[in-house]
Amino acid sequence: MEKETTGCTAGWSLVRHFRSRAATHKRAEATPQATDRSSGAFMLSSMVATTASKESMLATAAATLISGCVLLAARGIIGSRTGAAKRIIAGDSELNEFMTGALQPMLDKYTPTWWTNGHIQCFLTFLVPQSPVKYKRDVLTFKDGGQASLDWALETSVAMAKPLADDAPIAIIMHGLVGCSENMRSLCAEALAHGYRPVVFNKRGHGGMKLSTPKLQAFGCVQDLEEAIAHVEKTFPDSELYGIGCSAGAGLLCSYLCELGDNSHLRAGVLISPGYNAFDLFCRGKINPVYNFLMTFTLKSFLLRHKNELEDVVDVAGALKATSISEFDRHVYMKMHGYENLESYWKVNNPMRDIDNLTMPLLCINALDDPVCTKETIPYDEFHRKPKAMLLTTGEGSHCAFFEGNFQLKSWCNGAAMAYLDRLREFNGTRDSESVLEVGVDAPAAAATA
Question: In terms of pLDDT, which residue wins out, 355 or 76?
Answer without folding.
Answer: 355
